[in-house]
Design brief:
The complex is a heterodimer of chains A (97) and B (317). By secondary structure, chain A is α+β, with helices and mostly antiparallel strands. Chain A is built from three helices and four strands; from the N terminus they run βαββαβα. In chain A, strand 2 and strand 3 form a beta hairpin. The chains are: A alpha+beta (97), B mainly beta (317).
């Protein structure tokens, strides 16, 4: 399936409604990046509703990378006894489809 | 050529806007968007809820979809937050940081026990403040929690995982029945005398599919998860449970998959919008709340169980 990306701040209740998540696949990614199906009118209407800003795949990837890098830095700053003793693990890089 | 009228004996409705509450099987033509639409029935779906003020993972929780409680979590969090069905507000502060522990109860009568660095202790919440509870008999991290503040169950935990359980009466912990499979980071649902334990790990960090049911005395095997999962958001009861998200093979990757249990087997329902692990869940199988999780996040999602009727646009070539 072909996807497109946008950024939009998740304000909480009402940001994604049942009629929307049921109608098309919305996937949340770090940095308020959202992946939706390409060529889907309902998905485009949702981006309009949430005042989203469309991003190219490379732009979206850069935003996700920056957010993951911040999380990795926060993990790296933890004391050693907080690392690797549970699934509190170093966040892994995410490659967009 | 066959016509809709000829087949169904009625004409397609011609509407300027979609009906507010479409019925399953209802077909209409939206004259504003020039699209043919149909109402279909689905087995539940997620919608966003209010975001937690503090992003967190590996936390505890209690309550319902409209009266939820988020407790502590990673990294080093002492705060709790209370959900009213729309937004989270600050609750009482834990006496110490607590993560990877078991929890039980309601928004105004909760219990948190065990955890990383707090392996033996329990604390109780009255809707305002946390006070010390009875100590566990065995150190427990990554354990599952069921029941209420005065009739709770702490299930398994630790690494390597253990199979023993303990029961709480509001004052002290005593030994409960021992599971067939040792597990930690599992999902838990139900009560002290009708509990469900599903997924988790036996040998860290490899996910398992085991499901076990407790009757207050002994554990018996239930229907296995269709996908080995740990660190999911659990909700519901022993015979009507929900498992949202979690970590799955390979590499304990985040998943957004959601499954429901009917007392016999697990089936797939609508997926979380944001794939995550280390989240928490509360509520019922048909009215659940899933919140927090890694990276960490404060995202909250609300599940409405099926059947729900949604609108689909009819397309074709």
């Amino acid at each position: 399936m072909a996807y497109k990306y946008c950024t939009a701040e998740n304000w909480g209740k009402g940001f994604i409604e049942i009629g929307e998540s049921s109608n098309f696949d919305i996937s949340g990614l770090p940095g308020n990046v959202w992946r939706i199906p390409a060529n889907n009118k309902d998905a485009n209407l949702w981006v309009f509703k949430v005042a989203g800003s469309f991003k190219t795949k490379s732009e979206a990837q850069a935003i996700v990378d920056a957010e993951v890098a911040k999380a990795q830095a926060a993990y790296d700053a933890l004391p050693e006894d907080q690392k690797n003793n549970s699934l509190n693990r170093r966040p892994e890089n995410i490659v967009l489809e | 050529m066959a016509t809709y009228y000829g087949t169904y004996g009625q004409k397609v409705q011609y509407l300027a806007s979609d009906p507010a509450s479409p019925q399953a099987g209802q077909v209409w033509f939206n004259s504003t968007s020039n699209l043919l639409k149909v109402g279909i029935s689905q087995t539940g779906a997620w919608a966003t809820g209010g975001n937690l003020a503090t992003a967190r993972s590996l936390l505890g929780g209690a309550g319902t979809q409209t009266a939820g409680l988020a407790i502590g979590g990673n990294p080093g969090i002492t705060s709790t937050e209370e959900y009213d069905g729309t937004s989270w507000t600050a609750g009482g502060t834990l006496p110490e940081t607590r993560r990877e522990f078991s929890s039980a109860g309601t928004q105004t009568s909760a219990l948190a026990s065990g955890g990383f660095g707090t392996e033996l202790t329990s604390v109780e919440y009255d809707g305002t403040s946390w006070t010390s509870g009875g100590n566990l008999n065995i150190t427990r991290v990554y354990s599952g929690g069921n029941g209420t503040q005065t009739a709770a169950l702490s299930v398994g935990g630790s690494s390597p995982a253990i199979a023993t359980t303990e029961e709480y009466d509001g004052t002290s912990w005593t030994a409960g029945g021992t599971m067939s499979v040792a597990k930690g980071y599992q999902g838990s649902a139900g009560t002290q005398t009708a509990a469900l334990s599903f997924g988790g790990f036996t040998t860290f960090p490899t996910e398992i599919t085991s499901t076990e049911e407790y009757n207050g005395t002994s554990w018996t095997a239930g229907g296995a998860l269709t996908t080995a999962t740990q660190l999911m958001g659990p909700a519901g009861t022993q015979t009507a449970a929900l498992s949202a998200g979690g970590a799955v093979p390979p590499g304990s990757a985040n998943t957004n998959a959601t499954f429901q249990y009917d007392g016999t087997s697990w089936t797939s329902v609508g997926s979380l919008t944001t794939a995550r692990q280390g989240l928490y869940g509360c509520g019922t199988q048909t009215s659940a709340l899933a919140f927090a999780g890694n990276v960490p996040t404060g995202a909250t999602e609300e599940f409405t169980g099926g059947p729900v009727v949604v609108t689909r646009t009819v397309t074709g070539t």
